[in-house]
Amino acid sequence: MERAELAAWLRLTLAPGLGSRAARQLLKAFGLPAAILEQDVATLTQVVAQDAAISLRQEPPHFEQHIDRTLEWLRQDAALRALVTLGDPEYPAALLQIEDPPLLLYRLGRPLSETRNALAMVGSRNPTAQGLQNARQFARALAERGLTIVSGLALGVDGAAHEGALEGAPAGALATIAVVGTGLDRVYPRRHLELAHRIAERGALVSEYPIGTPPLQENFPRRNRLISGLAQGTLVVEAALQSGSLITARLAAEQGREVFAIPGSIHSPQARGCHALLRQGAKLAESAQDVLEELQLAPAAPRPEAGEPAEGEDDPLLAAMGYDPVSLDALIARTGIPTPRLQATLLELELAGHVARLPGGLFQRLAAA
Questions:
Q1: Residue 119 in contact with residue 231, Cβ under 8 Å?
Q2: Cis link prior to 170 (omega < 30° from 0)?
Q3: Into which CATH architecture does domain 112-294 fall?
Q4: Confidence of residue 310 (pLDDT cuts 50, 70, 90)
Q5: Mean pLDDT, residues 258-262 taken together
Q6: Could you give the CA distance from residue 207 to residue 213 in angstroms, rounded to a whole number?
Q7: Residue 280, helix vs strand vs coil
Q8: Is residue 305's pLDDT more than 70?
Q9: Where in the chain is the domain with CATH 1.10.150.20?
């Protein structure tokens, strides 16, 4: 993108008080941003409010430096970095269907036009051990079956979903998309710097926020409409009742997309948001197959016959644990197993990935997704 074209698009997106809705009205009336900037205030006010028209005619503060910073970012790796505008062939068709599509998308990684069928996965930043495992296993299984996994690069469920997608996606496929709430010249949280690099190699990082934008709290709820908007459905893995993941689920429903929720323990605060969604009509997701069937991406799989034991029920210790966190003393009381042998068995199960050790001396059985 040449400097003059970039400057025109940035003026349109950075003008204080204009907003993307008014900007789209101007694009519809006058064509490209350069043509909009040629209009006087009187002409512009035939389409937008006078304050917005005056704002558009005034160059934003430090505008030349902003152009320089954006061009420098684009040129650092032209093969992986792009500015995707409305009308660009790469602009995701799914986003054009939402109420407020962004004028510009900053993209780092593979072209968004490579996106296959997509599913958004969101959830708690502080998930249970089971929630973390569910996120990774669901994402891996769904990526293996051809879905691009969309999430927000946050700690917890988001990170696990990206990891699972990278593990499961076939070679050459766009594995996962991370929609972030900062400029793409920084990674937030910093703990996911290495993960972000891997996503850029096999997927894409996307932002509507200009280069240099720090992690501002108000930007993250707004970017959620893009997480849900890029996908055919949204799967909530774990969420408390006040979780931001429920915002994404609500936006998905408003956008006409499917909403899925994984049930959890009735004793876990991290399951209550999912249970609330299920009461409101979200689709129950007990396995990746449930999601694929609902999205009509796979034929219905045969269900276990009544009375068939669940996986792991033949292990008496796992059966005694159930699926809620449990203390060592409670397990001794339930099983009668001597303490040294019980501790050794729990360690073996932990190393095998069947049990997680939790804070406070608790243990939790991990079920396969």
A1: yes
A2: no
A3: 3-Layer(aba) Sandwich (3.40)
A4: very low
A5: 97
A6: 10
A7: coil
A8: no
A9: 1-61
